[in-house]
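Quick one: co-fold with fe (ii) ion.
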Amino acid sequence: MELMEHPSDQLAISVLQTINLLSSIVTLIERNFEGSHSRFVSEKSAAIAEVMGFSETEIFEIKTAGLLHDIGKIGFKDSILLKYPNEMNKSEFTKYSMHPTIGMNILKEYFAFENVAEIVYQHHERIDGSGFPRHLQMNSIHPGAKIIAVVDTFHNMVFKSSRDKLDSVTSTIKFTSATAYIDSTKDRYAAAINFLTQKSGTLFDKDVVEKFIDLIYIERKNLGKRSVMRILVDKVEPGMIFAESYFTSYGLLIASKGEKIEASMIKHLKRLAESGDIPEKILVMK
Ligand SMILES: [Fe+2]
Ligand SMILES: [Fe+2]
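Sure, here it is.
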């Protein structure tokens, strides 16, 4: 019997593998974040798109664009990666503001990424036209890019560290409770929510801001009810949350603190525990 899979299945697998491949390259420029910036942006943007009633294909494209939105920063120097745009000098900002265009140019080479490339190209556009690179306004901005803009801004404000704080963020802070984890980001969280609310309707799409704040509020509230425990990888269940970040022996991020454990990750985690890349028991919030 012919065991070849259906060609379209093979194509789907190949698209997913390409996404994973590019996504692991992107994590290499995320040293200055607490957890994975791209995975957070991807996961939350897809959740907003779902609440807003986007089609399955659109949600998938937004999820992918979230993972790859900063791919154009690969090769940028730390002097740019570790700064907020308002801390950059003119030439650093000029270079920085090219990343959506570079990203779009990389992604458009792959036939399956046509829409993804467009979303990536537009993720720094703002609805009042003050964004870059094309100063698009309102409805001329791709709806997926409007979503990513909000989640991206939030994650940068809460989980990005500037140069002087890099050591404290990359160190493995261990929390004994979920509440302590929430408290550690409390001030930055409040500032980010404030900023998004203030700029809702000028920089950011009102509806997106509203949906995102609802989502993140419920998530943090539920997180507070969880307890932190160390459990065998064999006992890990989907829906648990990583309470610390895990890296491969060569420094590639496997899982980031605060990230939800998906069913699809569990097999991979077991393999990594067997090979000794991660401990037999991992710290989770349940
Ligand atoms: Fe960006
Ligand atoms: Fe980003």
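If it helps, The first strand starts at residue 228 and ends at 232.
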